[in-house]
Design goal:
heterodimer; A: mainly beta; seven-stranded mixed sheet; globular; B: mainly beta; six-stranded mixed sheet; four-stranded antiparallel sheet; 10 strands; about 0% helix
Chain lengths: ~120, ~110
C-alpha cells in the first residue's frame, strides 16, 4: 500500500514569510498527526486530527501555526509568519485509530524547513 | 502521559544482538509500549509494540518486565542498516476518541559497527 505522502520535501524561506506543508495519509486512516522535529531531538506532536476534528493541539503555537484537515483526508500545516526557531523537519503521520492495538503510526518522509 | 528514559547512545557489533533498554516507571495500566526507529533523513518507522506480554515480529523482540516499569528491545542479529535512533514511547488510548497520545523523547542512537 502507498505510504504517507508529504510535500514539499525541502523549503527555504526568510523569517516573517509564510509557508505551507501538505500531507496525504494512508488511505482509510482516520487519525493524522503533525510533528515538529528539531535537529538532535525527538519528534514533538503539534496537532492530532481524528477524521476532520482536532483531538489535541495543546502544543501548537496558535499565534503563528494553523492546520486543517478538510474532508478528513489530506491536511495542510501553515506557518505565518515564520521565525528562525521554526527551522525543523515537519513530519506527518497517520494511524488507523480503531483502538490502541491498531494505533500504530506510519510516518511520511518529512519536510525540512530552513528559515533564514 | 508516562515519560520514558533511554540511554543516549549505544554501540553494537555487527551480527550480535542489540539490547536497547527503556525505563517507563510511571506507566499506567492502559498504556502500551511502542518502539520506533529513525534512520537518518527518514521519518520514524514502527518496529513493535506490547502491553504486558513479550512480543516478537520479523524485526525484533520486545521484553516487558512483569511490573511493566521497563522494557528491552532486542534486535537479534544487528546489521549495519540497523544504525538509527530508536525511540521508546508509551501510548495512552483515549477511550472516547479511540485516539492515542504519545510523547517521543530523544531516543537512543544505536551504532552498529563492522
Amino acid at each position: 500500500e502507498a505510504g504517507v505522502a508529504q510535500s514539499p520535501r525541502y523549503k527555504i524561506i526568510e523569517k516573517r514569510q509564510s509557508v505551507a506543508f501538505w500531507c496525504n495519509p494512508i488511505s482509510g486512516h482516520a487519525t493524522l498527526y503533525w510533528y515538529q522535529q528539531i535537529l538532535g531531538q525527538g519528534p514533538k506532536l503539534l496537532i492530532q486530527f481524528q477524521n476532520n476534528g482536532v483531538v489535541d493541539d495543546s502544543q501548537l503555537p496558535k499565534d503563528r501555526f494553523s492546520a486543517e484537515r478538510l474532508k478528513g483526508v489530506d491536511s495542510t500545516l501553515k506557518i505565518q509568519p515564520a521565525k528562525l526557531e521554526d527551522s525543523a523537519v515537519y513530519l506527518c503521520a497517520s494511524s488507523l485509530a480503531g483502538g490502541p492495538t491498531t494505533d500504530t503510526q506510519y510516518f511520511g518522509p518529512g519536510t525540512r524547513l530552513t528559515v533564514l | 502521559d508516562a515519560k520514558t528514559t533511554q540511554p543516549p547512545s549505544m554501540d553494537c557489533a555487527e551480527g550480535r544482538a542489540a539490547n536497547l533498554p527503556c525505563n517507563h516507571s510511571t506507566i499506567s495500566g492502559n498504556e502500551y509500549v511502542y518502539w520506533y526507529r529513525q534512520i537518518h533523513s527518514q521519518g520514524p518507522q514502527y518496529i513493535i509494540h506490547g502491553l504486558k506480554n513479550n512480543e516478537t515480529n520479523e524485526m525484533a523482540s520486545l521484553i516487558i518486565t512483569e511490573d511493566r516499569k521497563s522494557s528491552t528491545l532486542i534486535l537479534p542479529h544487528a546489521t549495519l542498516r540497523d544504525t538509527a535512533v530508536y525511540y521508546c514511547i508509551v501510548r495512552v488510548a483515549h477511550l472516547l476518541t479511540n485516539a492515542g497520545k504519545s510523547t517521543f523523547g530523544d531516543g537512543t542512537t544505536l551504532t552498529v559497527k563492522p
